[in-house]
Amino acid sequence: MRIENVNPIPGGIDLPPLELLRSFEAAARTLSFTQAATEVFLTQSAVSRQIQQLEASLGVLLFERRHRALALTEAGRVLQRAVVESLERLRDATARVRAVPVLRQVAITTTPGFASLWLIPRLARFTADHPRVDVRVSATLEVQDLERSRIDVAVRFVPIARGTGPTLFEESVMPLCAPRIAAALASPSDLPNQTLLTVDLPNHAESPTADWEPWLEVMGLADLRMKNTLRFTQYADAVAAAVAGQGVVIGRLPLLRELVRTGQLVAPFGEGAASRRGYFIETSRRAAGNADAQDFVRWLRAEAEAASRD
Q1: How far apart are CA 251 and CA 197, in angstroms?
Q2: How confident is the model at residue 194 (pLDDT cuts 50, 70, 90)?
Q3: Which of 6, 65, 172, 278 meets the CB 3.0–4.6 Å disulfide criterion with 56?
Q4: What is the per-residue burial (b if ≥16 Cβ within 10 Å, else e) of 11-25?
Q5: Helix or strand holding residue 249 (H, E)
Q6: Which residues pair with 65 in a beta bridge?
Q7: Nearest residue to 236 (alpha-carbon basis) of 94, 104, 135, 139
Q8: Where does the pLDDT of residue 118 fall: very low under 50, low under 70, confident under 90, or very high at 90 and above?
């Protein structure tokens, strides 16, 4: 059957408008103008008019209108297969060419102690000011190659003589312990009666007090031996043991300044000694083109300056 005396679709019949094909696909799949109307957000009568317009442009019926039912004609089945395939190809192509949002990321590497005790407690201030920036922190004692690992910023803990890049801060060290233990420490000569909390340092397996050595050297206590020793692989764990009253840890400032300020840890012998080590900022070549990495470096330095004034 041919349909006559109906205006053709603007632009010719070779390529019907996409909105007509979408309505046809929904109607052909559901065999209901009413359900199709719900899917394409039109009224039932609007979908019916669109199908009529499409049929008129093609000159054939696409549906058999039965009593309260629709059925596809042979022409309708041919068109349905073609439309379904074409719409799927359009969806796939659209997904491939759609602009992907540029990922804004800053990748940092540093020691586990610096990450857990100094950086992470402050990091929310950076993310609050830069909500669209993802921060990736690699906390490791391994010295990572920034270019090969695709890292923007490193905060290195090294002897001052070997430091490269801007200095974040230099370190001072002193014994720290819980207040109840500090009450029994009138002078360093009382330390042999306490438990030593120490950390295994890379390349210092033969020296169980390597992390204490800068302070012991300054105090002239190189032969100090304490009652017993608890050894840890991570500095943060040794600090947690000190807070829990399990012994005396060598305190690294400014990493532990907040614990001292709040009274969770006490320095029984007063001022510390310079360890001749410090934290230095290194940036990779990729960071030069990453404005967020540059902001992160400025934020690090501002935080360090603010902490030094507290």
Answers
A1: 10
A2: very high
A3: 6
A4: eeeeebeeebbbbbb
A5: strand 248-253
A6: 70
A7: 139
A8: very high
Cis peptide leading into residue 188 (ω within 30°): no
User: Quick one: residue 55, left, alpha or beta (phi over 0 = left, psi -120 to 50 = alpha)?
Assistant: alpha
Helix, strand, coil in percent for the chain, rounding step 5: 45, 20, 35
Is residue 248 a contact partner of residue 212, using CB atoms and an 8 Å limit? no
pLDDT tens by residue, 199-209:
887 654 445 56
pLDDT at 13 over 60: no
Instruction: Please give the Cα distance from 80 to 202 (Å, whole number).
Output: 69
Kindly state the tokens that stand for 250.
């060598």
Residues 6+ apart with CB under 8 A from 182: 266, 267, 268
Instruction: Give all strands (DSSP E) within the chain, no chain letters.
Output: 63-66, 69-72, 105-110, 134-139, 153-159, 167-176, 195-199, 228-232, 248-253, 273-283
pTM, rounded to two decimals: 0.64
Q: What is the rounded CA–CA span in Å between residue 196 and residue 201?
A: 15
Give me the pLDDT at residue 2, please: 45
Quickly tell me which residue has 């420490």 as its tokens.
Answer: 185
Q: What is the CA radius of gyration of the chain?
A: 36
